[in-house]
Design goal:
By secondary structure, the protein is an all-alpha fold. The protein has helices at residues 2-26, 58-64, 66-73, 93-98, 102-107, 121-129, 144-147, 152-155, 173-177, 182-186, 224-228, 244-248, 271-274, 289-293, and strands at residues 192-193, 241-242, 258-259, 313-314. The longest helix has 25 residues, at 2-26.
Length: 324
């Protein structure tokens, strides 16, 4: 019995050995007596493929334009966390605005790159509004500034801003506007003025320099009064008795930028009212020489609104004359 068991054990071992060797060979493992197979050597990568579409990459741009590259990183345009910014395109922030730069980098020819300062105003703005086409910027095309051949880089600087907000070339909104609107900004120095000098407002509190549906690029509404009553809500109305010049436009009586008269009135009382109300019910010549000689008490501290206090409108049934 023991003599028969030995050949069976040898045969079983041979079958097991053959099964193991076959499985190892099938799975790529070295078989006994065979050197372990070495993986194929990794060939060094060839030169990196050229950028598609004629792009050079930020690394190439900043080789020469290092200052512009660093200044961009300090602005919102250089924040890669926001995918809508130029820096959101990895290694292509510069070419988002300046276009493909490989040909310029290879030749050094300035005409082979998009330079906004050398472009026409309309074309330069087109680069900016390709991204800035929402919110306050949505109505730039055809706006008063666009129609007058101003461009985004007239007021804004991408690489060298002076203001802390909006990347303005000047140190503030008012300093930017005064470069063109000298008369309006000069009125702020008068005794009655909008609170811009105190820093409580700026020009963009009322105006949208990128365009609006209102006159004078006003931000709110479709006519002057809608802008004014957005703050002066007590003058909104509707009133049972309307005052015609008030209904037409607040700027009929007020100078919105500043005046040397109280309440920023366009003229001194009562002369303001007498521009329309001439010789009706009350004398309209209280400043003439005859009244001065007669020592008229109307010359001192008198004004139509002393009696007609509800001059913006009245809801009283007897308020047709806007009395108290």
């Amino acid at each position: 019995m023991s003599s028969l068991k030995a050949p069976l054990v040898v045969a079983g071992s041979a079958v097991l050995w053959f099964t193991v060797v076959t499985a190892a060979a099938r799975n790529g493992y070295p078989t006994p007596g065979q050197a372990a197979a070495q993986p194929p050597p990794k060939t060094p990568a060839a030169t990196a493929p050229a950028q598609a579409g004629g792009l050079a990459g930020d690394d190439t741009c900043t080789t020469c334009h290092d200052h512009e590259g660093k200044s961009l990183q300090a602005t919102l345009h250089g924040k890669a966390q926001n995918p809508r910014t130029p820096a959101g395109r990895i290694n292509h922030a510069c070419e988002t605005c300046h276009g493909p730069g490989r040909e310029h980098a290879e030749s050094g020819d300035k005409t082979k790159i998009r330079r906004l300062t050398a472009m026409s105003p309309r074309d330069a703005s087109e680069v900016c509004v390709s991204c800035h086409d929402r919110g306050n910027h949505a109505m730039w095309k055809g706006s008063m500034h666009d129609a007058r051949n101003l461009t985004c880089i007239t007021c804004h600087s991408i690489h060298s801003p002076s203001a802390g907000t909006a990347q303005l070339k000047a140190e503030s909104v008012v300093a930017t506007c005064v470069t063109c609107h000298k008369t309006e900004v000069a009125k702020l120095q008068r005794s009655g003025h909008m609170p811009l000098r105190e820093g409580k407002m700026d020009c963009t509190s009322c105006h949208n320099p990128h365009g609006s549906t209102n006159v004078r690029m006003l931000k709110v509404g479709n006519w002057v009064n809608e802008t004014c009553v957005s703050c002066h809500t007590e003058k909104r109305g509707p009133f049972l008795w309307d005052h015609a010049p008030v209904r037409e436009a607040c700027s009929t009586c007020h100078d919105p930028h500043g005046s040397n008269n109280e309440r920023m009135l366009a003229a001194k009382l009562p002369m303001l009212c007498q521009r329309c109300h001439i010789g009706t019910r009350h004398p309209s010549t209280i400043y003439d020489g005859a009244q001065l000689t007669a020592k008229s008490n109307r010359l001192i501290g008198r004004g139509c609104i002393n009696c007609h206090a509800q001059i913006h409108g009245s809801n009283s049934p007897a308020g047709n004359t806007f009395l108290r």
